């Protein structure tokens, strides 16, 4: 049984009058490259909680994605404005033109790909089960039956958790004790550390960062679901923007700048597809 669903969260949020800070944002005022150049500013929405893709350091958004965006802004001859927002507000904000595109690591799913214009993949991750290092009761994926699982609300990991619970029930007759949803992955790690949850389901790159920051506190008990391709997202009415993103990736890949940034942030060049990566029916 879920303790807190996304729908419940949205109802509570609307009832309280809070809308994830989106009403305070200025509109990007357009959806073409000409509009961006006229404004002299490339405005993107980011959830900076996905190290090393995008995260906050000394009050500034940094990471692989930020460096790529700086190259794109320089290519257009404009300044970069990178808004750091909760993940749950990014795609609604995109559809309202509160920014030119979403530059955060969004998992490509068939449902999302029919509604939003995904760019070429910027990375690939697995959904892993992170547990406390001293929890001997969980040694493999099937051991999480009867445990409380935490993950980020609205993320690509949430449906993975739901699907795996169905598999658990079919194979063992027992699902989770509960599912707890949090605003950001670091919150999930904190919940695991303080024993609010027994298992943190999160992307492999986030788990690796959390384990590096808290040595000997956590370990990986397994991976579930399929590998996820991560990409940036343009408004489906702004396909010129998506073409610019993809053309820029192709250009930076050809001149070696993309590989250099991948080596800087990930330690080595990254193998990601740049064709045939969208599911059937995608925009």
From TrEMBL:
Signal peptide residues on this chain, from the entry's feature table: 1-28
Domain of life: Bacteria
Tagged with keyword Signal: yes
Key word Signal present: yes
Protein name, as recorded: Amino acid ABC transporter substrate-binding protein
InterPro entries: Solute-binding_3/MltF_N, TAT_signal, TAT_signal_bac_arc
Alphabetized UniProt keyword annotations: Signal
Domain Solute-binding protein family 3/N-terminal, chain residue ranges per copy: 41-269
């Amino acid at each position: 049984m879920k303790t807190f669903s996304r729908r419940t969260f949205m109802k509570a949020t609307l009832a309280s009058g809070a809308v994830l800070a989106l009403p305070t944002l200025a509109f990007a005022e357009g959806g073409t490259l000409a509009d961006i150049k006229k404004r002299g500013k490339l405005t993107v929405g980011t959830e900076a909680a996905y190290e090393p893709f995008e995260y906050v350091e000394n009050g500034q958004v940094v990471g692989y994605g930020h460096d790529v965006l700086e190259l794109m802004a320089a290519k257009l001859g404009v300044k970069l404005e990178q808004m750091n927002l909760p993940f749950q507000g990014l795609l609604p904000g995109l559809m309202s033109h509160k920014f030119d595109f979403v530059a955060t690591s969004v998992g490509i799913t068939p449902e999302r790909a029919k509604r939003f214009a995904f760019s070429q993949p910027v990375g690939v991750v697995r959904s892993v089960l992170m547990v406390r290092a001293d929890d001997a009761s969980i040694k493999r994926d099937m051991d999480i039956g009867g445990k409380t699982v935490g993950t980020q609300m609205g993320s690509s990991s949430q449906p993975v958790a739901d699907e795996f619970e169905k598999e658990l029930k079919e194979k063992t007759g027992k699902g989770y004790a509960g599912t707890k949803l949090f605003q950001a992955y670091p919150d999930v790690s904190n919940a695991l550390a303080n024993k609010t949850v027994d298992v943190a389901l999160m992307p492999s790159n986030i788990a690796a960062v959390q384990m590096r920051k808290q040595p000997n506190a956590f370990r990986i008990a397994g991976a579930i679901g399929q590998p996820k391709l991560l990409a940036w997202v343009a408004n489906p009415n702004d396909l010129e923007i998506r073409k610019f993103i993809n053309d820029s990736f192709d250009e930076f890949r050809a001149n070696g700048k993309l590989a250099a940034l991948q080596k800087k942030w990930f330690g080595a060049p990254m193998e990601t597809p740049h064709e045939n990566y969208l599911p059937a029916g995608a925009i």
